[in-house]
Each structure stands twice: as structure tokens, then as C-alpha cells.
Batch of 3 targets.
Target 1
Amino acid sequence: MVSLLARRRLVDARSVFERVILDSSVLLGDKSARLIAAADLSFFRGYWSSWIAVEFARVRTEWIARRLVKETPDMAEANRRLDASRSRVNVAISEFSRVLTL
């Protein structure tokens, strides 16, 4: 863990990466948790837009729909998975909203 003093030096250095816009492709990627954690630790100030938030939700919904078509003929199971997916998207949007500037 980076000490508070070291963290302040990194943030106060006014680096080229002080402001970063995180696109939906980044937020959907495998490094999303690391980027959100870095923004939360003030290594950079993360930004996103309402369009990016909607794109994130749309793509995540499309992913689950495609998997459902391939894997699940049972409507009750499909509904359970959609509800679980909705919950995960809501948690992610909530976390992004806490850390990123709209």
C-alpha cells in the first residue's frame, strides 16, 4: 500500500495523467477494478459521462442475453440470471458513481 505522503506526492506532481476519462470499454475490461481503485486512491481523477454509463449497462445486458440464448432454454433460469445481472450492473454503476466524476 502506498503511504499517504507518497500518494500526495504522486497526486501533487500534476502529471500528464491527472485527469482520465474512462470509456465503457475500459470499465468493461479485466483491469476495471484496478483503474477504479487507483481513481479511488486519488492517483488520478477519473471521469465518465452519462453516455458511457448507459453504454456500460447496455453491453453488460447484451452479454447476459447472448449467454442466455446459448445456455438456457428454461425461462425461470433466464429470469434469475437477468435479475442477478441487473444487480451486478447496479452495484458497478454505484461504485463507479462514487469514484468517478460525471
Target 2
Amino acid sequence: MMPEYSLKKMTPHKTKDWYIKWGASLVLIVGIILTSNNIYPLNLYFDIVGLTGWFIVGMIWNDRALIVINVVSLAILTNGLVTYYVK
């Protein structure tokens, strides 16, 4: 028996977390474009801002998976930024 799926919108619209997640997503897209064009370290700044936004959304939603992936990603990118400036 197939589970029933709904196309009904499940997330709130135009709430604080909605603005943060869409803003962070747009910033991450810019970061990805910068990465694909090898514009370094500017890409790291955009990625860090975007990941911070998604970390905040994870905290608001109390979603441990979002929190973990974004904290780990932030740590890795911050390490890359520190390494860039130390060299």
C-alpha cells in the first residue's frame, strides 16, 4: 500500500524563520556561484553567512539535523578562512 502524500504547504509563510531561510538560501547560492568561479575567499564569507542563517532556522525549528550539519559546515569553512589569513 502506497503512503499518501500531500502537496499542501507545510511551512509557515512570511514568518521570521521564512525570511531567514530564504535570505540564507539566496546568500548560499551566491556563495556557490563564487566557488564555481574560484573567487576565494569571498565565497567563504557568503557561505558562512548563509550557513549561519540556516543554523538559526535549525534553532528556531529545534531541528537537530539542521543544527549539526550547519555547525560542522561553519567550523570547516571558518577553518579554511583562518588558514587563508594565517598563510
Target 3
Amino acid sequence: MKVWFLLSRFEQGGMERVQIHLAQGFQSCGLDTSLVVGSVMAGARQIVPDAVPLLEIAPRSKLAFPFGLWSALRRKRPDVVFTTANDVACLMLLVRKFAFPKIRVICTQHSSISGSRRSARGISRVKHAALNSLMRRLLPQADRIVAVSNAVAKDMQRELELSLASIDVVHNPVVTPEFSDLMNQKLEWPWPDHESPTVVFAGRLSAEKRLDLLVDAFALLSTKLPARLLVLGDGPRHRWLIDQIEMRGLEDHCRLVGFQSCPLAWIHASDLLVLCSDFEGFGNVLVEAMACGTQVVATDCPYGPAEVLAHGKYGQLVPCGNAQELASAMQRCLEGTAWIPEEVLKKRAGEFGLRQAVDSYLRIAGLDD
């Protein structure tokens, strides 16, 4: 049985790590499993284990993706295709309809549809509206539809007029068998000591991650107690973030260490992880932090954090866009008034394991026989 995880492009992100984990889990069940991508972004190939086949079908231009997909389908003939991007899902369903009717197509939704639509501007907003219209027509033709959280499933129901009963929910596989070894790896700490508590941010440095809110909140926090800010990641707002840190005179308290293919050791060595996004699909980094025993503060954004943190039971949730509330929550955590025991966090994180996710996907795809 041949299985594909189909992506438009492969970057150094959390969603890509999820696909790698799932591919490895499927391989452990004896399935011929590959990652099939339009193009591989710079530096991203290094995060893919050698044992996981990576097929690049449109390396020179995204316009060549439909032709690359058609050619690869004819040559490889997969039995099951899992899609991740919405435009790719629509394309795969159309191609399946006209030429490859025997392929099972499972469409997975990893992010908030409404969040992306609301944040879009200009021509991008028009494109979102057109894609959503296409999805309303085509997604019901998929063999199964999967959302990574219950909240994302409800968002799909509202945005695409789907029946909630037609959407399966499978949480992302975050805790893998090698998790403990990875979080205990040695690293080069960017300060000479660990005397001050460290707040860590891990993610893409992009607008929806609200780095402005992070800097504002940390600046407020630093007036209340000594703390440090560690930033893991790269993206379009990298230079902007450096300028903001320098403008506020926080250079001695902040370190940007760039993209880390495995952020777990950094998160484990920190005291508090902060997620301050305007929207998320799931929030893998929240589970990673809990599995490391690291405290969590997150914005109560659509649609992942509240579900992952059980509406505040396993970490503080604060309103979106409010730097003062975020700073206060960070302070309560670091001062110990909102501290959650490490064993409680790790037990909760264990609910988001690889085995649970793989078993669910195998059942959904009809591969559990």
C-alpha cells in the first residue's frame, strides 16, 4: 500500500514536522510512505530523516505544480493521498475525479480558515474568497476530511458550510518516542548563566505571530522583574524584531538564535514559553513546552490554544492583542503564583502522542486492517 503526504511546498515549520512524524509512524506499520512536495525551501531538507522519501515535483516554479502532480501520480500510483494545503486539496480532488478515481483522498485542515481570511488584504482577500468557494464545492467529494482540533472543525463548518459530522478530528502528533532524548540535547546557551528566568518564543517570525505584542509585553515585564527573552525562528519580521529590541534598549536581555531544526532543548532550558498569535490551527509548540515541563502563556486566539490548554487548566490564556494582560500573566508565572507542576504538564502533553495520531489516521484512511 502506497501513501503520500502531499504539500505545496516544504518549509522549516511545525506543520512540516507533523508530516514527517506521521510518515515515520506509517512506515513503522509497514506502509510505503513518501512526502511529496512542490518545492523544498532553503534549508528545509535537513529536517527530513534519510529514511523518509522526499519527492519534489515542481522545484522551479509553483505554476508547474499541476503538471508535476499529474506526472508523479501517473508514475507512482499512490493508493492514498493526504493533502495539507487547501489549494492542493482542491487540485488533487479535481485530478482524481478526471483521471485517478481509485485513489483515496483525505483532506486535512491545519489552520484557521476564518483567521487567514480576516487577516488577508487586497488581492489576497479575493483569492481567499475564491478558494473558499471552490472548497465548498470540492471538499465534500473527499473520502474523509480531518481537522487538527475541534475548534478548527467548527471553523470549517461555518466557513465552508460542511456538516460537522463529516469532519474527523485528529490532534497533531507532537510527543514522539525520541522526544526525551531530543529535549535533553546539549546546546550553547546564549548567556553566560541561568540566573534570570527565561521567556522563550518559538515560531515563524511573521505578522500573525504578533511579535509586536511579544516585545511590548516583555518590555513591560522587564520593568517588574529581571528576565530574558529567547527567540527561536526566522521569517519576514526578523529585521523588524531586531530594530524593535534595539530601539527599546533590550539588547542585553534578548537573544535571537534563528531557526532551530529541533527547538526542544531550548524550550526545556527555558522557564516559560509564550505564544501570542492572532490565530493558530493547533499550536504544536504549546504541547512541546508542556512535554518539556515548561510553563505556558498563550493568547486565547482561534483556534488551538484553548483546546490544547483545556481552557486555562494547563496554562494561562490571555486576550489577543493585549500587551498588559500578557505581561501580567508572564509575571504571575515567573513569580510562581500561576505555576503548574511539571508532572501535570507532561501528563497532559502525553495525550498528543504519535501513536494516537497514527492509529486515528490509519482508521480514517481504511488502512487499519
